[in-house]
C-alpha cells in the first residue's frame, strides 16, 4: 500500500443520488473515477527519474463525487466536531458539510458535537446539537465555531463507544495536527472493532503548518488581518525619530503568518520566524542590523512570530498545552526589552510593542477562505459518502485531493529557508540573507 493510498470501508455499491455525468461534452460535471489521480511532484526532474526507473510518478487521489457511494442516504447519520484553537472559516466548513449532506446526498440526520473531543465523552454531559440547513445558513458570517472547541484528546474507546451509541456513520473532525492524529486513532479503533464508520479530517490551523497540503483554511484570512496591523504599525514607527514597531504574530512552530503578512504589507524590515536561529549580539547579530537600519532610515518595523527566538531563552523545562504543543517563552516582550537595553546608551529610540494576539484568528473568513472552505466541505462529504476513511481533504498543486491522515501528520510543515518563498520575504524586507 502506497503512502498516499486511501482506506475504504468496503465496496461502494449504491448509485450516487447526484445527477452527474460520465461523458465529456454534455456540459455536466463528470463523476470522479477512482483511477483519477493527481501527480504529486511536478518537477521534470522527478518525472524523469520515475521514467528512468520504469515507475509511475507518485500520485494522489483526486477528490470529488463518485458514481457509487458506500452509505445509503436514507439511513446515514453524520457528526461534526471542531477541536483546537479558533481559525477563520470553521463555521463555513460546518455550513458546507451540512448543506452538502442535506441537499446533495439527502442525509438529514447530522449532529454537532459540542466543545471538541470532550463532546464525545458522555461524562462531560454536553449533549449534541441537531444541525439543519436552517440552523447553519447564516453561520459563515461569524468567526469562531458554533459548536465550541477544546484542546486535548479523550479516551479513544469512549469516543468510539459514543459514535456507536449515537449510530454515527460518518465523523467529520475539523482541527489541526493533534485533532487529526486523534481522528486517525478513532479510525484505527473503529477498524479494530470492524465497524463501518468513516472518519474524515478537515485540516484547520492559522499557522499553515500541516504538511503536504498547499495551505490550510483560515491562514489567508489571518495574515490578511495581520497585514493591516502592520500597515498601522509602520505609521507608528515612521511617526517618531528612530521609531521602532515590534509586532508579535501567531505562529507557534512555523512562521508563515509572519512571513506572508510581511510580504503582503511590504513595510516590514525584519521578519523573525521559528525556523531561523538568529543571533542577537555581535557584528552580524540582529541588534547591529537594527542599528544600521535606524542610522539609514530613522525607523524600523520588526515582525516576530511567537515561536521565534526560543533558542535565546534558558529553558529549564518544556511546558506543553493540552494538545501536546510546546508552550513558548514570550519572544515579543523579550525582544522589546533587549532592544531597549541595547539602544539605551547608543541612540534615542521610541519603541512601540504591538501584540494582536487572538485577533488574527477569531474573525470570520475572508472571501478567498470562504470559497476554499466550501470546496473543502463539499469534497469531504463526497469522500465520506463513497466510504473512504482515515483521510483528510486538502489542496495540493492547486487540486483538491484526498490524503491519508498519517501522510499529513507525520511532520509539521515549516518554512524552507532555502525556498523561493523565503527568498521573496528577504527581498521584500531587505534583511540580510545571512540572518
Ligand atoms: O491554532 C494555532 C494557534 O493559533 C497558534 O498560532 C498559537 O500558538 C496557538 O494556537 C494558541 O492557542 P491557544 O492559546 O488557543 O491554546
Automatic annotation (TrEMBL):
Cofactor: Mg(2+)
Keyword Transmembrane found: no
Entries under InterPro entries matching the protein: ATP_PFK (IPR022953), PFKA (IPR050929), Phosphofructokinase_dom (IPR000023), PKF_sf (IPR035966), PyroP-dep_PFK_TP0108 (IPR012004)
GO BP term (any one): fructose 6-phosphate metabolic process
CC terms in the record's Gene Ontology section: cytoplasm
Segments traversing the membrane: none
Keyword Cell inner membrane: no
Domain Phosphofructokinase: 78-382
Xref: NCBIfam families: PRK06830.1
Record family assignment: Belongs to the phosphofructokinase type A (PFKA) family.
Function of the molecule: Catalyzes the phosphorylation of D-fructose 6-phosphate, the first committing step of glycolysis. Uses inorganic phosphate (PPi) as phosphoryl donor instead of ATP like common ATP-dependent phosphofructokinases (ATP-PFKs), which renders the reaction reversible, and can thus function both in glycolysis and gluconeogenesis. Consistently, PPi-PFK can replace the enzymes of both the forward (ATP-PFK) and reverse (fructose-bisphosphatase (FBPase)) reactions.
Protein name: 6-phosphofructokinase
Organism expressing this protein natively: Croceitalea dokdonensis DOKDO 023
